[in-house]
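Ticket #4471: structure output looks truncated?

Reporter: J.K.
Steps to reproduce: submitted the chain below (709 residues) through the standard prediction queue, then opened the result file.
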Amino acid sequence: MAPSLRPPRPRSSKLSRPVRSSRTQVQSYHENSSSEDRLDEDTESDQERSRRLSLSLRPRTTGRMPPSYREESTDDDLEVTLNDEPDAVAPSEASSHLAHSLPETNTRTAPPRAPRNRTVKTRSQTKKSERRTGGRRIELGRPLNKRRKIEEDNTPFVGSGVIPPWQTLPYHILFDIFVRASSPLVDEQTGARHSSVQWLVNVALLCRAFHEPALAALYRCPPLIPSAKTHGLLHLLAKPQESLSTGYMNKIKELNVDVEHLLLYKSGPTLGYFELPRLLERTPQVKALRLYHKDDYVVGRRLRSKFIYPDLIFSSMASSSIRLCCWEWNSRFMETKKLLPLMLEKHLQPAFHGLRELRLLHITSEDADDDYLAEASDEREVVLATALRELPDLCCLEFVECSIVNEYLFSNLPLTLTSLTLKDCDEVTAVNLGSFLSSHGQNLRRLDLSHNRHLSLSFIVNLAQSCKNLEIFKMDISMHDWTSYHDVEPHFQELLDPLEIPTWPSTLQEIELIQLRKWDDTTAEVFFRSLIDAAPELQSLRRLVISAILKIGWRDRATFREKWIGKLENTFLRRSAPPDPKLRSIPRTPQQKDPSHSIQSALPDESLTHSDTGFSTPSKRKSVRIAQRKFSEADEDEAAHVLARRLNEGSDSSSGAIQGMCDVVMVRIDNQRPTENQFNEEDFLDDELSGDEDWNGNDPDVNDGSHAW
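Returned output as attached by the reporter:
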């Protein structure tokens, strides 16, 4: 039977496209209707369609955790487990949209579908399920291995309760206390005031007895930073001193002026330039004047400054009858060929004729662009030596980065020097320094040699004979590096010859030798042996600091270190017992007028009276004798033990002599590479601020539905 042809069924106008039953319907997680309701989706109103579009298109599930921005912890101690998590967390965005959604016009709703259970766990759920329960809660940022804290003795100090009458001390004693407690007032490298300035002001306002000495300590060397404060000081000194409660003019004894910060530029549109001559006219009691540059603390930076010594400064000192005791000449403010004649001229004036301390910086023997002949190379040394001879009271001389210091200048230095400091002087050698010490070292009490590239230790052979009054001897062989090829090595072949035995003056009080190198273990043994042999004569030595570098095997170096450090400590370190930390001041008990207390306090006196009169029992007298005998035996045993220990320590030393008077004995022997800045363990500890000081260490719970921020 042939199929009958039927006319096609008219399609509903509601269907726009055929529905494929073979394709799986993808349902949004925000829809609650079944797949059959899709046939009637055109019946929905426009408001319902706009509401659905306003919702987030991101699939959401009841088992999905809200995003968290904190890091995953690797610790196993966590209290929160997967079972403790809630089944659903309502996001704040969704709730916000639902709260402000438009009212629905279609009232047709389908029965809610049962929530689908996720069969595959997310990564965060997998990690949490593997963690163990119990233990303490993990805090964000807590280190896995905390650094063990050093146990400190937090025992409160129990004082006597007696406050000494500080206000009754004399003026000069209080002044000395305040000066030592507050110095320095300014950090010249950073150009900032210290907090001790405000401390002195507070002390001056504490009581009337502290007012004058505290202000004298503050104005002795007033901080001329910042420039506005300096203008205020000048304005204060310009007032009639008779109208002020304190005479500020006569309190100023020293002036340290940063020329780059104070004199070279304006202090502001209203203050203008600071006039140093006006300040000198109002400070007639000034004894020390320093004009410094901040680059003077950086070795090798010899750039010329725009500041030049003005004539008004010298004329103001002459008009104010200032008599300086301390001054420094800096070639940064004037080239050497012009500075030396000026130096000779000013040393003849009364303001400079009484100088006792002089500091010379960056004085060169020849300029780099000079084409003078070799015969004229001593011209500058002659002028400088002549200028120094015009100072009859000169006793302290310091050279910093001065290539003019050579054998000719050494032979013409004054014989009255008691202190000589040489820093970064390339022309100083062991030969010319040894010649100077043999002829000019009889009055030297302090010798400081630092960073001199060509200076070895050979001159120390005749040190005891040349410098019989030497008290402080310092030498630092570390080199500053201002070149591109990192030249930090000294330019001598060897530090000391094995046949050269050092000698030490008997008046030495302090020995400090830093980074001794370019020697072998044999020479080092000769050096350390000379110190031990000279121990009986070094009765005034109180501080011994030696830092040595030995390039030998680590086993030999360890043996060498153990041997000689022990010998030096046994020979020089003070062996007196430290004070007992348990000893405290006995608190003063207030006197009470209670009659019962007076009766009780009188009981010991009554018993003492009875014992003196013979009424004490024999058992009491026997126990007292036994106690005294035990105490005496304990003292004798302790004294014998200390004596035996000292004898054993003395037997370890070959010389047998123990000085035992040094408060500080620091000896370091290693093979470290010499650098300008030495780092230790404290430089690598994580104690700096992390930037999260406002965080208290507790994070909100992940399951509370909130965000990280």
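Triage note (M.O.): checked the attachment and the full token line is present. The chain has 20 helices and 13 strands.
Status: closed, working as intended.
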